[in-house]
């Protein structure tokens, strides 16, 4: 009996040649999900230089959910990357990591004209961003 998936490689090649690969293989073409930050102190319009919610249980709970909805598709469940995007468990703790995190989440990343990470400023609130950062510090590894 012939294996039912024996032509899968051929199909993948045809899709790539036909230009359908971006739709089939894309990992980040998804609309960001709204984050309910009820229970967190409002921070205002000016972005803060360091995380005001560090170790805050409400922020960590919100950040866990927000990460799963908006970040895990590229950065992996539990922030354990499968290689598509950086493993965020290794971000530095404290203010140093805050600066790196906020720069990237706000502005995104573009290399050679390709969007590697979309900017989330204007999509996620500052409160949601800091909540995600708060959760990330709970899964930090050295």
TrEMBL record:
Signal peptide region: 1-26
Q: Name one Pfam family in it.
A: Cytochrome_CBB3
GO terms (molecular function) for this protein are: electron transfer activity; heme binding; metal ion binding
Top-rank taxon of the source lineage equals Bacteria
Q: InterPro entries from the xrefs? A: c550_proteobact (IPR030991), Cyt_c-like_dom (IPR009056), Cyt_c-like_dom_sf (IPR036909), Cytochrome_c550/c551-like (IPR051811)
Q: Coiled-coil region(s) at which residues?
A: none
Gene3D superfamilies for this protein: Cytochrome c-like domain
Q: Which UniProt keywords apply?
A: Electron transport, Heme, Iron, Metal-binding, Signal, Transport
- Give every Cytochrome c domain span: 58-140
- NCBIfam families in the record, alphabetically? c550_PedF (TIGR04494)
Q: By what name is this protein known?
A: Cytochrome c-550 PedF
Organism of origin? Zoogloea ramigera
Q: Which gene encodes it?
A: exaB_1
